[in-house]
Amino acid sequence: MIELAGLTKRFGTKTAVDHLSFQVRPGVVTGFLGPNGAGKSTTMRMMLGLDHPTSGTVRIDGKHYRELAEPLRNIGALLEARSMHPGRSAYNNLLCLAQSNRIPERRVGEVLDLVGLGAVAKRKPKGFSMGMGQRLGIAAALLGDPRVLLFDEPVNGLDPEGIHWVRNLMKALAAEGRTIFVSSHLMSEMALTADHLIVIGQGKLLADTSMAEFIHQNSRSYVRLRSPEPVRLREALTAGGLAVAEGPDGVLEVDGASTEQVGDLAGAQGITLHELSAQRASLEEAFMQMTAGAVEYHAHHGSAAGPVAAGPDAAGQAADGAEPRGPRWSKEG
Amino acid sequence: MASATAVLRSEWTKIRTVSSTVWTLASALLVTVGVSAGLCALSNATFDDLPEPERLTFDPVLISFAGLTLGQLAMVVFGVLVVGTEYSSGMIRSSLAAVPRRASFLFSKIAVAGALAFVVGLATSFLSFFLGQALLGEHSTSIGEENVLRAVVGGGLYMGLIALFSMGVTAMLRSTVLSLGILVPFFFLVSQILAAVPKAKEVARYFPDQAGSKILQTVPNAMNSDPAPYGPWAGLGIMVLWVAAALLGGYLVLNKRDA
Q: pTM here?
């Protein structure tokens, strides 16, 4: 269990983390989501006692980090890939960490085997690929067999097989009753791993909800229509009791209706349709909307972003550079 | 709090498992002994050409440590790397996550590295002395003479303290490059030059290296140097104060700053 109470961090005049209060519970994977620069890494560093909070507290199983006698036995963390000495063998890097917390030396070999680095244990991390470095960091996190684990962007630099492995590892660790807290800036990644979701933007808490609830709230479907007679179509649909919203480029969007229903109404009036399709807003889109006001670094694409991709995959990846758009489906309640 | 012996063991593992430890300490020993031996042989060969004041205050012990001016730079590099690579590699985050008490982490590291530097310093000092005396021929002295053992042991202490000072400064600056960029020119150039400039030398004699190296002299005003307002042990004491200040500063920075 990790508990944050009013956690705040300021760097000069900039507030990186702003009164965060939430709990990370054992037995589930908790996703920590936010755009780049939202304060995720700073929050995680404060959890580990590396950064001093400006105010507020973090407790790990009820204790401040510095009160933990042998912290690696309570909490393990993958912070950045580069937190190992590049000129010291992978084995020895882990050995000095193990020794400081009186973790038996055999555990070093065990965790290296567990992450698939057994064969390169004697090699120096400076020759490691990013993925291998990431695995070494995960091995370090697992050294003390801790009840609480933090992973900061664990899939960075991993190949698809590695990503799959990390996901399963986190789920397995959670199933053993451990507290798993994993950050990402990709909603699609979280949707596949996390049971619970904490979303922050510009250091502020935006959501603290179960994954199922988040999907339920944010992946509502709508029907997309294009017609050479938009005015007539709109009248027909409104008369049929449907809420119609105007999309980009003359597209109409109907919330909370089936394609059959919409098609029948148009057909009854003899209106030509060029498109009639069921759409689901992706979770990625929902996430981008939630954090739209809180994004630190924007790519400015003007109107070139075009229509937002939306497909059957609820967790589909949004197109690169797609601008978040207004919450179409909540427009007319 | 993590067990003190566990943290010491961990720091010892860190030091013995990087190659820089071997090459910096080996350089400190070889450069000091080699350059000292060369200058001893040269002094012996050209003794009669020395100016009279230098002949009268000729210090066979001090001359056998002549290579220390250069060899100490390797000790500086050792001290800087021991602390600096924690920052340059990012290891500091893993280290402090494992040992969150800053004092426990820093002073264990400094104790282990300082002890090692002192042992290598002593070996360097004795080797340099005996080799130097063998090459000085009739101008040599022996370890049994007055103040000689003090100077030779002092040489080991001096090298250990130089390493500790470098560790403290690096802990304050949190950067290998910055620390080397300041310490190496300081000890190799600034301090040496200022010590030769009138007026400036009144200040320079209180620099850590100038004060600490007083312990290497066994003859008053050795090699026609200026008389210092402090004795050998007081000089070393001044150096110890510098080291203590650097280490305290390093601790305060580590404790206050985010990692």
A: 0.84
In this predicted model, what pLDDT tens digit does every residue of B123-153 receive, in sequence order?
A: 999 999 999 999 999 999 999 998 999 999 9
Q: Which distant-in-sequence residues (6+ apart) come within 8 Å of A163 by Cβ?
A: A155
* Residue whose C-alpha is closest to residue A66's, from B253, B172, B109, B98: B98
Q: Would you give the DSSP letter of residue A330? A: G
Sequence letter at residue A258: S
CA distance A209 to A300: 31
Report the C-alpha gap between A35 and A56 in whole angstroms.
23
Instruction: Measure in Å the smallest separation between the Cα of A128 and chain B Cα atoms.
Output: 14
Q: Which pLDDT belongs to residue A297?
A: 56
Q: Which of B83, B74, B82 is nearest to B24 (CA)?
A: B74
ipTM of the complex: 0.90
Q: Is B1 an interface residue toward A (CB < 8 Å)?
A: yes
Nearest to A99 among B10, B92, B100 (CB): B10
Window B:90-149, CB contacts with A under 8 Å: 90-101
Closest-CA residue to A171 (of A143, A202, A196)? A196
The single-letter DSSP state of residue A289 is H
What are the start-end ranges of the E strands in chain B? Answer: none
Instruction: Provide the domain limits for residue B106.
Output: 4-256
Rounded to a whole number, what is the distance in angstroms from the first to the last CA of chain B? Answer: 19
Q: Give chain B's count of helices (H) and strands (E).
A: 13, 0
Pick the residue from chain A with its C-alpha nearest to B2.
A69
User: Band of the pLDDT at A305, cuts 50, 70, 90?
Assistant: very low
| DSSP for A62-76, written as a single string | TB-GGG-SSGGGTEE
Mutation site, B94, B105, B176, interface A, largest A CB count within 10 A: B94
In tens, the pLDDT along B67-120 reads 999 999 999 999 999 999 999 999 999 999 999 999 999 999 999 999 999 999
CB B215 within 8 A of CB B157: yes
Q: Maximum Cα–Cα distance for chain A, whole Å?
A: 79
Q: What is the number of structural domains in chain B?
A: 1
